[in-house]
Amino acid sequence: AVAKARGGHLLLRGGLTRVYARLARDRPDLEPRGFDGAIRAMYRDRLAPRFAGGGELTPRDADRLGLLMTAEVVAKSAAVFVQSAYGKQLVEIDAGASHGGKIAVLPLAFPDPGREDDAREALVVARLAGGERDADSLFEALASLAAETQDLRFAIVVAPRGRRPRRSLGRLADAFAIRSRLVAVSERDHARWRGFVRRAAAAVYVADTQELAISPFLGECLSAGVPTVSLQVGAVRELPDDALIKLPPDPGSEV
Fold it and tell me: Which strands form 202-206's sheet, in the order they lie side by side?
């Protein structure tokens, strides 16, 4: 809302679809159009014919269609910074080619690794920000590891989106029989999940399709020298091939 009203210099780390959804739901004084009204005002004739004729558009529809809802804040901004070439391409497509000249890429910075005397444990730390399919695939892989190594534990870093994701994780943990080995940590609790990263034997990074940058989680994993596996999607493709293990976007049996 501030960016829309005042412009200035903007750092975009991800799409704004979920921000608009929260504003429409919780602060109608700041977004009186509602989510459907906001997305229609932003994309107008760019929507597919099946959506242009009517029917309410939801945040899930926007995610599925790859709509980042950046146009209004980009139009107001004097300059826009993203942290990957991938992010620059997405914002240029989403906000419109006429704004491409104000979008610049900041170089990727990694955190100071600090002390490296933390003992490694039989621990796999994973960051989950994707959808239900990603969660199912991740838990299936973790269950396979659990069957091979009896003392292996898991820490899952989850985006802070309320209780529903945690309940879903609990159901998956029960379904794959690893609840007793699993702890879930909010992405906001940086100190706690950073501690897990420092002790982990391996890490798994599941990207969000709306992310325009390498996440702080992945930066911490690589900085700490933790062997890390990630799907080769989005900004991950820009990292050196020897920095982590890159899997194809649909790895199938290779996982």
Answer: 182-186, 153-158, 123-128, 202-206, 228-231, 245-247
